[in-house]
Structures are given as structure tokens and as C-alpha cells.
Amino acid sequence: MRTVIGIDVGTTHIKSILFASDGRVLQKVKSATPLSSDGFGSVYKPKEIWEIVKDQLLGLCRAAKGPVDGISITGMAEAGLVIDWFTREEKTDIIPWFDKRTTAQAGRSDLGTEAGRFATTGLHNSFKYGIYKFMWLLEHGELNKKRAVWLSMCDYIAFKLTGQLVTDPTFAARTYVYDMIRGCWDVDEIRSKGLELYNFPKVIPSGEICGECGFLKNGSSIPVAIAGHDHVCAAYGLLYGKKDAICDSAGTSETYIGVLRELPEEGFLHDTGVLYGPFVDGGWFYMASVPSSGHSIEWFRKKMQLSELSYTEMNRKLGTLSQDPTGVLYFPYLTGMGSPWYTAFMHGTLLGLSENDDGMKILKAIMEGIQYQALWLLGILSDAHKAGNSELVCAGGAVKNQYLMQLKADILNRKVNASQQEEATLCGAAALYLRKNHDSSNHGGLAGEFLERSLGQKETYTPDGDLAKKYKKIADERYLPMVKILRDYYKAWGNEYE
């Protein structure tokens, strides 16, 4: 029986799982992702991250009864750092995807060229992208530009394991200087930023072996692969064998992803707010996102309480509330808006409070607001890619919250199939490794069997038709009109609220 280790370097947690090739979880380890500050904003300390990953891998290798067949890496996109290719040293901290220090760099881009950049990258301009973090680090540090290489967080882990400076297309695409149509770095755009091709890692296919690690178990070598962006790996696992379904990857941030095997005749749709990128096993994906989805709930649970509210107590108290809509509107923009407008200046907002409202009612309103945003995005995806009746398959930390899952079904007015395996991202990463490196045929039998065992068990939440009508009325008549008012309001006041 083969074994594969999946590593997920996430915003909130770093998790690793030792899988059997039939999909069984043999052992799992999990640690908080340590967040620091450098005076400009949030950072991850690369050596701290590496020590956590290394300790997890050493523990799982000791737990394995035989040789480990491979390590497959997934995690957050956009976060990254600079490595000196000559000394192989970490020259900077890791800037997280959500850190806004790069807003000025993004603002220097010529917005008149954005439609052209979109046709190449599938992305709308945003402070989050790797190129702007790279530029900021070059501007604020004493770096030798000729020896500087940009690596995403997961590229860095692969580098520490293998010594190779490589990335995969899904991480390369989140730099904003990758041509997703031609499948290569956009050299002209890179040079327009004062950089060269040697400042970026080699791009290899998602899930394919990039090198070997020889120090984890008895000196034997373990092949290593970069599986790709966490949300895309989750989509690979959840949508395997499904033609038209949509993956809802619900964690700290939340994304709705569907797969396109061929380019649309009209090209990628620039004006819809939908993003696109290379899928991990060919073709492309379309995506809409709510960056502060689970983050909003964690913000309330940890920061808006006198003492941290446990999940058990939170769910018990939510269960005592009326099923009707709260009437309070929450706009989930704590880190700016993702889809469809991609604006960093938007802020989380609560409207309609009364003196009788307590914390649990506000928490429910926060959950409602996340789903109002999702309802808007699914409407856009329906118009753009005929996804109106697509099956919705949900996975991630949010699926543990049955109250939230039922609320999602009621507001979205569609069945929600929630995978009972909360680690869909790691399952997808491990399955992709098996598919690319151990499936003897093009049919992906080994990966399919793995995913059937690991992700096959689902719970279905069916919408309440009466509640769905009430929620849609609020979304159409109150939520969406107010979003436009808030956009103008926060844009006019800039960053005064930071």
C-alpha cells in the first residue's frame, strides 16, 4: 500500500496528513500558522514556518510503517518571499496574501491596460498579487536584484525540501506576470517592472515531481511535488468526475470554482468580476471569492467577545435563534472586497442594529451577510457560465458548522452537498500526486479510488422554500443596493478608517 503526505500551508493553520493510497487518513498533525509584524504590516517568519513543516513531516515519516511514496504541497496563494539564488538564503520575511502594504505598488499600474492584462492573466488588478509584494520588498530592503528570486510560500517549502527553485502554474498565475494562455512567464510584463526571467522560479506542471528530499526518513529519498493553490486543489478533489458542478471551498476565505476544459469562444469575460486561472490537471478554472468569509466568523468569535467563544457554545446558542432572517445586514469586507469588484478600500459593515440585538443575533447576521455575497456571486457565475443549476459541493472548515450549512442552503436556495472530510484540500493534493506520478493509465483509476474513499461521504442540506423567498427579497432590495452605496462611501473616504 502506497503512502503519500499532503502538506497544507494555510492562513490559519499548517496541516499535514499521512494518507494511504486507498484514501484512508493514517495520521494528521496541525499547528497554528504563526503571524508576526515587521512594522509595516503582517508577516510570516520563513524559518518559523519551515520548522513547523519539518517537524510535522518528521513525525509523519516516523509514523509510516514503510517508505513514504511522495510529498504533495498545497497552501495559500500570493504570500511569498525573496530568496538569494546564489547563497540559497531567505532574504526577507513572507508577506501574507491579505497584507495591504502593496496597495501603492498596485495603484501605479496603468488601469487603461487592465483589459489586456486580464486577457493574459485572467485576473483583475489587486494589491494581493506576488509581483507587487516582490516590488515592495525590493524597494524597502537591501537586496541584490540580480540574485533575488520570488517564491510563493509553498514554493519555499518545496525549495527547503529539495533545493529546487520551482513553482507550479496555479501559484505562478497569482503573481500577475504569468501568461495563463501560453502557459509561461510573461517576459515583457516582467521586464516592464524592471525585472528579468531569472527573478522567478521555473514553472513545472502541478503535481509532478520537482525533486527529492533525503533527510526525513533513514536517509531515503522522498519525491516532492507542488500540487498547487489550496482552493484549486480542493476543487480538483471535489469535482473529480463531475462535469458541471461548482466547488465551494469554505475556509478563512471562500471561493466558488468551476472547471472549463476549453477556452470560451468569446474569451474570458472581463466585465463580470469572475477570475480565471490554469487548472491543476489541464484546462482552466473560473472563480469568484469572498476573502473574509470564515475570517469574519473568527473575527467575531475571537475579537468581539470578552473571552473567546468556543465552537460548541457558538453552535448551541445559534440553535436557539429564530429561523427567520435577522434583518441586520453584514457586508463581509474585513480585508476588502474580492469578487466581483476587487477593491481594497471596502470595509466590513453592519447595518440595522437595535438595542435589543445581542451577540448571537449579530453572529447570525454575519453568517447571513457572507451568504448574501455568495448569492450575488453565484448569480454572476450563472450568467457567465450557465452555472445556475450546478451542483454545489462544499468542503473546508465551515462544513463542521451545520447551522451555517443550512443557512447557506436557505439563502442560496439550492441543495448543498457538504463533504464530511473537512480536509478536501489535502485530499485533492494527495490525489493529484497519485494521478500524475502513479496512475498507470490516463483514466486516473488510483486517484479516483482515493477520492471516492476520502471525499465520497457527504451530507445534503435542502433549502426551505419560504425562507429562501424572504432572504432573496432582502438580498435584492436591501443588500445589493447598499453595496453600491458603501462602495462610493468608502472610496470617497479612502484609508481614513485603517
Topology summary:
Elements: E1 3-9, E2 13-20, E3 25-32, E4 36-37, E5 42-43, H1 46-63, E6 70-75, E7 80-84, H2 103-107, H3 114-121, H4 130-140, E8 148-152, H5 153-162, E9 166-167, H6 169-172, E10 178-179, E11 184-185, H7 187-192, E12 202-203, E13 209-217, E14 220-229, H8 230-238, E15 246-250, E16 254-260, E17 275-278, E18 284-290, H9 293-303, H10 311-318, E19 329-331, E20 349-351, H11 359-385, E21 392-395, H12 402-412, E22 416-419, H13 424-437, H14 445-455, E23 458-461, H15 465-493
Parallel strand pairs: 1-6, 6-14, 9-12, 15-21, 21-22
Antiparallel strand pairs: 1-2, 2-3, 4-5, 7-8, 10-11, 13-14, 15-16, 16-18, 17-18, 19-20, 22-23
Helix pairs in contact: 8-13, 9-11, 11-12, 11-15, 12-15, 13-14
Give a quick summary of the entry:
By secondary structure, this protein is an alpha+beta fold. It is built from 15 helices and 23 strands. Helix 11 packs across helix 12 and helix 13 runs antiparallel to helix 14.
Please, could you describe this protein's structure?
- With 498 residues, the protein is α+β, with helices and mostly antiparallel strands.
- It has a seven-stranded mixed sheet with strand order 17-18-16-15-21-22-23.
- A hairpin with a 4-residue loop joins strand 10 and strand 11.
Radius of gyration: 22 Å
Low-confidence stretches: none
How far is the first residue's CA from the last residue's CA? 53 Å
Largest sheet: 7 strands, mixed
Strand order, sheet with most strands? 17-18-16-15-21-22-23
Percentage of residues in helical conformation: 25-40%
Q: By helix and strand content, what is the structural category?
A: alpha+beta
Q: Give a count of the beta strands, DSSP E runs of length 2 or more.
A: 23
Sheet-strand content, in percent, reads 15-25%
Described by the principal axes of the CA atoms, the overall outline is: globular
The number of distinct helices, counting runs of at least 4 residues, comes to 15
Mean pLDDT: 91
